[in-house]
Amino acid sequence: MGRGFTAPHLATLISMRTRALVTALFAAILLTACAPSNDLLFLCSNEESVCEQWRADFEHDSGIPTRFLRLPTSEALARITSERGKPEFDAWVGGPSESYVLADKRGLLEPYRPKYFDSIPNQFKDEHAAWFGVYGSVLGFCINPHVLAENNLPHPTGWKDLEDPRLKTWISASSPLTSGTAFTALWTQTQLFDNPEEHLEKVYDNVGRFTHSGTAPASAVAAGDAGVAITFTPYCEQDFDPNVDLEVVFPNEGTFYEVGAAALLVGSRSESKAKEFLDWLSSARGQQAMGRAGIPQSPINADLPDNLQQFLASTNVKVLDATAPELAEQRDAWLQWSFEYLEFSK
After folding, report:
1. 145 SS3 class
2. SS3 20
3. How far is CA 13 from CA 10, 44, 280, in A?
4. CA nearest 339: which of 186, 119, 128?
5. What is the pLDDT of residues 70-85, one digit of tens each?
6. Whole-model pTM?
7. Cβ atoms of 256 and 324 closer than 8 Å
8. Which option is the CATH number for 7-137+258-334: 3.40.50.300, 1.10.10.10, 3.40.640.10, 3.40.190.10?
9. How many Å apart are CA 98 and CA 45, to the nearest integer?
10. pLDDT digits (tens, 9 = 90+) for 288-308
11. Which of 249, 335, 323 is nearest to 13 (CA)?
């Protein structure tokens, strides 16, 4: 982890690993980039169904024609970094807040205090209003007990259990080079083990295929293509086939959570519409849209029931204590290590 590493270098590494995906998205990007200026265009780093719920509900409530482009968090950060000075999107929503900390440090975010900013706890927003939390999710395992039993596989209850060679190819996880979820998982494990590199290599050697998006592993488990997914647990609780019975497990050594954020982008195509969108995202309608989409992520607004602050205060799950800036400080070094020592070409 001592080697030099810069944000542009990371963008280059991500670009190398995701060239095929970018090519596949090229036509869609051209369409969205050429969208009329009287609409709202946002970059979304959540599950597709949540992105669509935000789009449809905001358009219904505001009357503003709304579009979105979905990209995993790390790819979204790389995209807005590479497009600096070329306004393409109005706002960004979804994905762990440490990436928003980095975006702010790169001068990509325009501070804005949305309407319900004061109802968001201080630890879930930037003190200078560069970004604020919209939803929260706790990291864990999504398990298909039928797949494990049918293949005589162990039932993991903690991170250490994922090292078991019997689970080789049966774990589904996203790549830290493209997914914010994956970095949260990577960072969490580095805090829990004395020799994290050795542990991480064993765990990720058991991954059958790395996904670009952190929302995809739960779908792989639901489909029976994997027995265990490393993911934010609400993605395991969405509506899959009613015949599929999935189980959420919180690692016994400890875990962490995400604060899915939102922010106004510098040079937005329509700043007034973007601010109206952020006001809406800070409101009950915006912060409860995830549930309407079938993904039970916790709202951040402290005035709303079942919010993240209430969960963290009452849960028996061992949750690590850290801030988004602390994670952001370590992100590039651990992603560099991942690029050099983990195999993501499976």
Report:
1. helix
2. helix
3. 5, 21, 35
4. 186
5. 999 999 999 999 988 7
6. 0.88
7. no
8. 3.40.190.10
9. 13
10. 999 999 999 999 999 999 999
11. 335
